[in-house]
Amino acid sequence: MSEKIEPASLNKIVILPTTAEYAESMERLTGIVYGIDPRQDPKCLNADHYRHHLTVFPEGQFIAVDTTTNEVVGLTVSMRINHDPAKPHLGHWWDTIGQGWLTPHTPNGEWMYGVESCVHPDFRGYGVGSKLMDARFNVLRRLNLRGMAAGSAIIDYPKVADEITPEQYVQDVIAGRRFDTNLTKQLHKGFRAECLIPNYLPVEETGGWGVLIVWDNPAYRPARVRRASAPQVARRHMPLYG
């Protein structure tokens, strides 16, 4: 897929719920996006992981398929978690996702966690990633989840790491003074940046830094409380960035 993609050809890209038959194609895409062999890298999702995700949280997995080749050109992986906005915390990505097997998935979790999202380099900039995110949003609305949390890789930070701190970099991205290939797009999609996550991803990719991003579901309906209870003082998390 080295030729320039024409707008008309994008009509042949469809967003589908992930199925096991596409697991190998998803593995190929992962290898292309990250420039590695998913079967050899010990901290990379491969076809076995993708098939297993369908037994854990099938409604949270989506792919973008080029119908002319039947190849996967984009994918997302999600799971459910219990996220406390007052005590935001994410550890290393690989540990957070149970070494790829989504073992931390909480079936009744009130939040969706974005495990992975990637698009083939030849198809970036055409809204494929945005449509995949919309598919996630539709699911969490249907499940009446509070929202979505994820760790955003600040993939362009290493270019200026010798000049500014990661805190200043993220503040600049939020203010629009800098463009980050990953974080900027997520902010435009409605996410807000909460705090930095040290050692979130491999150093060679992002300098190790990630940013906790959160999207609140505006359609969320709190469960009705049947019994009166003592008033609770609401706790608010003060974001690092605003």
Quick rundown:
With about 240 residues, the chain is α+β, with helices and mostly antiparallel strands. It has 7 helices and 7 strands.
Write out key terms for the chains shown.
seven-stranded mixed beta sheet, 242 residues, single chain, 21% strand, alpha+beta
What does this structure look like?
There is one protein chain. This protein is an alpha+beta fold and 242 residues long. It folds into 2 domains: 10-145, Gcn5-related N-acetyltransferase (GNAT) (Aminopeptidase, 3-Layer(aba) Sandwich), CATH 3.40.630.30; 146-219, no CATH class. It contains 7 helices and 7 strands. It has helices spanning 23-34, 47-56, 93-96, 128-142, 166-175, 183-188, 203-206, and strands spanning 13-17, 62-66, 71-81, 111-119, 147-153, 192-197, 210-216. Strands 1-2-3-4-5-7-6 form a 7-stranded mixed beta sheet, sandwiched between helices. Strand 4, helix 4 (128-142) and strand 5 form a beta-alpha-beta unit. Helix 1 packs across helix 2 (47-56). The longest helix has 15 residues, at 128-142. It is globular. The model is unreliable at 230-242 (pLDDT under 50).
CATH topology of the largest domain: Aminopeptidase
**In sequence order, what are the helices and strands, one letter per element?**
EHHEEHEHEHHEHE
- For the secondary structure, the number of strands is 7
Largest sheet: 7 strands, mixed
For CATH, the homologous superfamily of the largest domain is named as Gcn5-related N-acetyltransferase (GNAT)
Number of helices: 7
Shape label: globular
Strand content: 15-25%
Structural class: alpha+beta
CATH architecture of the largest domain: 3-Layer(aba) Sandwich
Gap between N and C termini: 40 Å
Provide the gyration radius in Å: 18 Å
Spans of at least 5 consecutive residues whose pLDDT stays below 50 are 230-242
Give, in spatial order, the strands making up the sheet with the most strands.
1-2-3-4-5-7-6
Mean pLDDT: 89
Helix share, percent? 25-40%
Domain count: the total is 2
The CATH first-level class of the largest domain comes to Alpha Beta
